[in-house]
Structures are given as structure tokens and as C-alpha cells.
Specification:
Length: 484
């Protein structure tokens, strides 16, 4: 009876062992059996697939054949722990395949004990985590790229939660508001706004939480921001919503538009100055001529009334004055409405600028332009024309030159416009003085993505330069009209 029970017990044990052997053989994880010194005694199917070696190739060899040289010290440490009966659980490391390629693995090593509890063998279960590691690395690289973008963008990017508490604050936001990120994280975003924008923001958030109706989400608008020092400034704000599970986050994109507002005010000032200049030109030039004509005509009328004879030379002088007035009026009209720019192109229009400047100022003004230059279209032509006008008239009015030269040419793949004079020159810091024109010209250049500079010439005088890629300058556009 006892013998039969023993036989049944043996059969049951053998079945369990066969079952376990089958599980190990067909496991998706590599299973390696080895001695305490690291000699391979078992190598399952998954190990063959993972490492590229068949069982026949590795049985009896050291398991170090799958350990890269830079991991041998780590491997020795593992063996030492196993020899002392310790377990190693889910350690991430690197192994090497038969073809020399490295793979990322997660491995667990357990000692196999004899009846006395002493380790006699070791079993290693290894899982290939190369794909996961690559995905993690790709995600990490993506996060790094995104963080680099957030760190270098000129726009402030601020993330808040549903209650308005700040969760992130990029370097541009730090520069705009004057706070370090650590000073604002966790605080309410309304600290960055003056009243009544603080109250309005709280109302918008509360209403959105209660009703779900979007008032400012996805809509760009201009608001007033408040810096750490308490000063306020105009800014553009656009808010977007991000849902992470049940959590709602709001991202605000902020741009300081102080410089733009300042420039817009300067443009208005320039427009007013131009209006006054035209009025002064009409008064001093055309007005004076017409007054002279009227007085001379009245004197001749009185002579006729007395029956005296009028000399032909007197009428010829009136005709000369009228012709001079007409020329003056035409020069003013060309400056206000460059019809020639649309009909005959930029080169001819710039030549007319030179003629107009010389006519109005009496200062020789020459033009040099390459006839083979391709047509310059649209906004580019208009802005270059206006820059030339401003630079040439500035030179005539303020620099006391003997000569002004306007030049446009293609050089090294760029379209280069220069206005040069031999006058007294501008102050060293032309960006802060010498008239509004020094602000509007760079603004116009910026509109067409051109590089603009004003420099003093070594021998005296000033050089105004504006350049942009020729390909960009000659692209056709829909319109050549300019409202400024």
C-alpha cells in the first residue's frame, strides 16, 4: 500500500516537473540555468530567440558570453550575491547578442537551494526591454525638445489649474513679469494682473466651471499685465484648454506688446509731423509763389486800369512762377502717391525720389540702379520706396550734405538698397535721436523681414542700408498699395 502511494506521489511530482519544464521551455522570457560559477546548464527557446545562440552553442560555456565588457564587474557582483544565497529582482541592465548588438534587459536571478538550504545552482529570468527603453528615450527626447522650445520661445507660457493656480511658468514669462518661477508656482495667476482684470479673470473661471461656456478660451485679446515691481504693460493673451483625464488645465500664451504700442504711437506722431511738413511746404513753397503771382498780377491790372502798356517780360515772369508752382505741386504729389511705383516699377520710382529730393531741396541727388534687376513686387517695393523717401529727405533736411546718392542693386543673392550722403552725419546713437524717421524706417524693414542699419561713414556722412534675399524680394503679391 505504501509502495503504491509512493509511486503515485512520484508520478504526481513528475507531472508537475514536466508541466513546469513546459512552462519554462515555452516562456516568452529567457530562462537560463547556470552553476554558481556562471556555467550555462539550461537555455530555453526564448533565450535562443533573444540572444541568437542555440542551446547547443552555449551549454557548458560561461554566461559571460552575453555580458558586454563594460558590464563584467556588475556580472561578478551578481554571481557573488547568488553564491551567498541572495536574490536579485528586476534589475535593468544590458546584454549582448551573438551578432554583437546590445539589448536592454530586465533580469531576476534566484539561487536554487539544496535540502540543507545551501545554494547549488542559479536561475535567471530575462525580459527584453529594448523597445520599451527606446520608447522611453524617444519620449524623454521629445520632452527635452519641448522643454527647449518652452525655454527659448519669446512668448510667455503659463499653465494654471481650474482654480487659477499656476503650475508652470517658462523663462519668457519670468522675463516678462520679473518673477522667478519658484515665486509664482502654486499662487493664483491673478497676481499678474491689475484690478479690474483680477476680478474679471476670477469671474471668467468661475462661470466656465459652472456652465462650461467658453468666454475667453481660444480667443486672443489684449489685456494689461502687472510686473513684480507693480508696473503695468499691454500684452496679448490667448488661452487654450488641455484635459488630462478628469483634470482641466489652461495654458496662457503671453506676449508683451509694449514696444509695438510705442511704435504705433510714433507712427501716429510721424503722420502728424508729415502732415505739418506738407502744410509747411505748401505755405513756404507753393503758397509763396502763388502770393507772388497774385501780387504781380494785381500790379499789372492796376497798370492796365491806368491805360499803361504791359511789358511781355512781366507776363513771362508770371508764367515762370506758375510753372515753378506746378513743378513744386507735382513733386509733393509724387511723394504722397507713388503712382509710378505701380506703373513703372521700383527702379523708376526711386529715380523719381532722387529728382523730387533735388527739386525740393536744391541738393544734387543721384540714383544708380541695375537695369537687369528683376521686378520687385508688392509690399516689399512699397516699403523700400518709403524707406528711400525717408532716408533721402532726412539727409536733405538735417545733414547739410553737398550730395545724396540712392542706389539699388543685387549683390551676393541679396537685394541691397543704400542711401548715402556726405553731410555732417547723425549722432552716434541714432536709435534714440535725430527724428522719428529712425524709428519708422526699421519698422518698415521689419515688415518685409529685411536687415536695416544706419551707420556713420569714416570720411563723414551717413549710410542707410536695407537688404533682404533677392528671391524673397521678387515674389509676386496680391497688391502693391500701401495705407501708410
Amino acid at each position: 500500500m505504501r509502495s503504491r502511494e509512493t509511486t503515485i506521489e512520484h508520478e504526481k511530482t513528475e507531472q508537475e516537473l514536466r508541466y513546469l519544464a513546459t512552462l519554462v521551455a515555452f516562456s516568452e522570457d529567457a530562462v537560463i540555468g547556470k552553476t554558481l560559477e556562471g556555467t550555462i546548464e539550461y537555455w530555453n527557446n526564448a533565450a535562443e530567440r533573444m540572444y541568437g545562440y542555440t542551446a547547443e552553442e552555449v551549454i557548458g560555456k560561461s554566461v559571460s558570453i552575453i555580458v558586454p565588457p563594460d558590464r563584467l564587474e556588475e556580472f561578478s557582483g551578481f554571481l557573488n550575491k547568488i553564491q551567498h544565497g541572495e536574490r536579485i529582482s528586476q534589475i535593468e541592465t544590458v546584454r549582448v547578442r551573438k551578432d554583437g548588438t546590445r539589448i536592454d534587459v530586465s533580469l531576476s536571478i534566484a539561487p536554487i537551494l539544496d535540502r540543507a538550504g545551501h545554494p547549488i545552482y542559479a536561475s535567471t529570468i530575462t525580459r527584453d526591454i529594448t523597445a520599451r527603453k527606446r520608447a522611453q528615450q524617444a519620449l524623454l527626447e521629445s520632452q527635452r525638445r519641448m522643454q527647449a522650445i518652452l525655454d527659448t520661445t519669446v512668448d510667455g507660457i503659463i499653465t494654471i489649474d481650474e482654480k487659477g493656480h499656476i503650475e508652470s511658468f517658462n523663462p519668457a514669462a519670468e522675463r516678462i513679469f520679473g518673477y522667478a518661477a519658484r515665486e509664482v508656482i502654486g499662487r493664483n495667476v491673478n497676481m499678474l494682473m491689475p484690478s479690474p482684470y483680477q476680478e474679471e479673470h476670477e469671474t471668467h473661471l468661475r462661470r466656465y466651471r459652472e456652465t462650461g461656456k467658453k468666454k475667453i478660451i481660444g480667443i486672443g485679446r489684449e489685456v494689461i499685465g502687472m510686473r513684480k515691481d507693480g508696473t503695468t504693460f499691454p500684452m496679448e493673451l490667448e488661452v487654450s484648454e488641455v484635459r488630462l483625464g478628469r483634470q482641466r488645465l489652461f495654458t496662457g500664451f503671453v506676449r508683451d506688446i509694449t514696444a509695438r504700442r510705442r511704435l504705433e504711437r510714433k507712427v501716429l506722431d510721424i503722420s502728424e509731423q508729415e502732415r505739418q511738413r506738407i502744410g509747411q511746404d505748401l505755405h513756404d513753397g507753393l503758397g509763396s509763389l502763388l502770393t507772388g503771382v497774385a501780387m504781380r498780377a494785381q500790379a499789372l491790372a492796376q497798370l492796365l486800369a491806368k491805360g499803361e502798356i504791359i511789358r511781355a517780360v512781366d507776363l513771362e515772369q508770371i508764367a515762370e512762377w506758375v510753372e515753378e508752382g506746378a513743378t513744386h505741386a507735382q513733386a509733393l504729389a509724387r511723394g504722397l502717391n507713388p503712382v509710378m511705383l505701380e506703373t513703372q516699377g521700383l527702379r523708376v520710382a526711386l529715380q523719381e525720389v532722387a529728382i523730387t529730393v533735388q527739386t525740393l531741396s536744391g541738393i544734387p541727388c543721384t540714383f544708380e540702379g541695375d537695369e537687369s534687376l528683376p521686378p520687385v513686387h508688392g509690399t516689399v517695393a512699397v516699403q523700400l520706396y518709403r524707406i528711400t523717401q525717408e532716408a533721402a529727405h532726412n539727409a536733405a533736411r538735417h545733414a547739410r550734405p553737398q550730395r545724396i546718392q540712392i542706389r539699388i542693386a543685387a549683390e551676393a543673392g541679396n537685394l541691397l538698397l543704400t542711401v548715402r550722403d556726405d553731410g555732417i552725419g547723425y549722432p552716434e546713437d541714432v536709435s534714440s535721436g535725430a527724428g522719428m524717421g529712425h524709428h519708422i524706417m526699421p519698422y518698415r524693414a521689419q515688415l518685409i523681414d529685411a536687415v536695416f542699419s544706419i551707420s556713420r561713414m569714416p570720411g563723414g556722412g551717413t549710410l542707410v542700408s536695407c537688404s533682404l534675399p533677392l528671391e524673397q524680394a521678387t515674389l509676386p503679391s496680391l497688391s502693391t498699395k500701401d495705407s501708410t
